[in-house]
Design a protein that fits this description.
This protein is an all-alpha fold. The chain folds into 2 domains: about 200 residues, MFS general substrate transporter like domains (Growth Hormone, Chain: A); about 180 residues, Up-down Bundle (Growth Hormone, Chain: A). It is about 85% helix and about 0% strand. It is globular and about 55 Å long.
Length: about 400
C-alpha cells in the first residue's frame, strides 16, 4: 500500500519516458544493430552478395525516413499508443518472416516493411511523445530515453552473435523477433498515453509562458513557408551529412592511415560509448541555456572534433577525436528535437519534425556515398575531411543566423 501510494506521486510522464527508454533500446538493438551480425552468414548460406544485403538495409533506412511525415501526422492526431503498438507487432512478424526468407525479393520486401515499422517505433515518434508530456524537463526526459538506447548496440550485437554461434542465423533472428515482441508490444500498449490532459495533468514543469506558446498559430503550412524552418533544416542536413560520411568511413579511413583493422574497429566502437557520455552531460547543461545556444554548442563540438583529424593522425589526435566526435553525435541526437519542440511547441511537433527528417534522411544517405566517390577520385580521405569540416562550419553559421524566435 505504501509503495503504491509512493509510486502514484510520480508524474506519469516519467513512466512513459522509462518505457520508451526500454522499448527504444530493444527496437534499435533488434531491428537496426543486429543486422550487421547476420550479413556474413546470410551471404554464405543464401549466396547473396554483400552489396545486395547492405542495399536491403539501406532501403529499410530510406523507407523509414520517407515514412516520417505520415507517422508524425498520426502521432499528432491520434497519439502514440496504437501506432507504436502496431509497429511493434508488425516488426515482430517481419522478424519471424526474415528467419524463414529464401529469396532476395522477399528479403527486400521484408526490409521495406521493416522500414515502415521502424518509422513507427524509432526515435521520431518517441520524441513526439516526450515533447507532448514534458516542457521545462523535456531535455532531461529525452536524455533518459537516448541514454539507455545508446547501449542498444553494446547489448544486442554481442547477444545476436552469441545466438548466431549457438543456433545459426535463422534461429537467432527468430529468437530476437520473439524478444522484440515480448518486450515492446505490452509496454507500448499498456503504458503509452496520448497527452497529459487525458489524465487531468499538465506537461511536467510547464510555465504560463509555455502554455501560451502552445496556442500560437504554428501549423505545418506556415512553418514550411518560413525561412526559420528551412535555415534550421539546412543546418541540420549539412551536419547530418558530415556525421554520416565520417561515421561510415571511419574504419577504412583509419586503415588507410596504416592502423590495423582490429584497432580501427575498436576505435569505431568507442565512438558509441562516447555518445552515451555526451548525453549524460547534455541534460544538466541544457537547463541553463536556450535550445539555440545548445545547438550552436553541439555544432561547434562536432566541427572542432572533425578538424582535429586535419591536424594530424597520431594516437593522441585520434583518441581526442573519438571522445569529442562521439559526444557530439550523442548530443546531436537530442539537440534537434529539443529546438524543434521549444520553437514550435508540442501540438504540431510530429508533422514539423518529420518534415525535417525527410531531408535529413536524404543528407545522411548521400554523405557516405559522396565520401566514397571523393575517395575514389583522389585516393585519399583528406579532401572529404576538408569538405565535411567546411559543411560543419556552415551549419554553425546558419544556426547562429537564426532569430531568437520563429516567424
Amino acid at each position: 500500500m505504501l509503495l503504491s501510494r509512493k509510486l502514484s506521486n510520480y508524474y506519469y510522464g516519467w513512466y512513459i519516458a522509462a518505457v520508451l527508454a526500454i522499448t527504444e533500446t530493444v527496437s534499435y538493438g533488434v531491428m537496426y544493430y543486429s543486422f550487421s551480425v547476420f550479413i556474413t552468414p546470410m551471404e554464405n548460406t543464401l549466396g547473396w552478395t554483400r552489396g545486395e544485403l547492405s542495399g536491403a538495409f539501406s532501403f529499410m533506412l530510406l523507407v523509414t525516413g520517407m515514412m516520417a511525415f505520415p507517422i508524425g501526422w498520426w502521432v499528432d492526431k491520434h497519439g502514440p499508443r496504437g501506432l507504436m503498438t502496431l509497429g511493434s507487432i508488425g516488426a515482430t512478424i517481419l522478424m519471424l518472416m526474415w528467419s524463414q526468407v529464401s529469396t532476395l525479393t522477399e528479403f527486400y520486401i521484408i526490409q521495406a516493411l521493416m522500414g515502415v515499422c521502424g518509422a513507427a517505433v524509432f526515435y521520431e515518434p518517441a520524441f513526439a511523445v516526450i515533447a507532448t508530456w514534458f516542457a521545462e524537463k523535456r531535455g532531461t526526459a529525452m536524455a533518459i530515453v537516448t541514454f539507455t538506447a545508446g547501449f542498444a548496440s553494446t547489448i544486442f550485437i554481442p547477444t545476436a552473435d552469441l545466438l548466431l554461434v549457438n543456433f545459426g542465423w535463422r534461429q537467432a533472428v527468430l529468437i530476437l523477433g520473439i524478444v522484440l515482441g515480448v518486450v515492446t508490444i505490452p509496454l507500448h500498449l499498456l503504458v503509452l498515453r496520448r497527452r497529459p490532459e487525458d489524465l487531468g495533468l499538465f506537461a511536467d514543469g510547464a510555465t504560463t509562458e509555455y502554455k501560451e506558446k502552445q496556442l500560437q498559430p504554428f501549423d505545418l503550412k506556415s512553418v514550411l513557408k518560413s525561412r526559420f524552418f528551412w535555415i534550421m533544416t539546412l543546418a541540420f542536413a549539412l551536419s547530418s551529412l558530415s556525421i554520416s560520411a565520417i561515421r561510415v568511413h571511419f574504419i577504412p579511413l583509419l586503415i588507410s592511415l596504416d592502423i590495423n583493422a582490429s584497432a580501427a574497429a575498436l576505435a569505431s566502437g568507442s565512438i558509441g560509448i562516447m555518445q552515451v557520455v555526451g548525453r549524460v552531460f547534455f541534460a544538466p547543461i541544457e537547463r541553463h541555456f536556450s535550445s539555440k545556444t545548445m545547438v550552436i554548442g553541439v555544432f561547434v563540438l562536432l566541427t572542432f572534433s572533425i578538424s582535429i583529424l586535419l591536424l594530424g593522425t597520431s594516437p593522441v589526435f585520434i583518441i581526442l577525436f573519438i571522445g569529442l566526435f562521439g559526444m557530439g553525435i550523442g548530443t546531436h541526437t537530442l539537440a534537434r528535437p529539443l529546438i524543434v519542440a521549444d520553437t514550435y511547441g508540442a501540438k504540431f511537433y510530429g508533422r514539423i519534425s518529420s518534415s525535417m527528417v525527410i531531408f535529413l534522411t536524404v543528407a545522411s544517405t548521400a554523405g557516405p556515398f559522396a565520401a566514397g566517390l571523393v575517395f575514389d577520385s583522389f585516393g585519399s580521405y583528406m579532401p572529404m575531411m576538408i569538405g565535411v569540416t567546411g559543411f560543419s562550419l556552415v551549419s554553425i553559421l546558419l544556426i547562429w543566423m537564426l532569430p531568437s524566435h520563429a516567424e
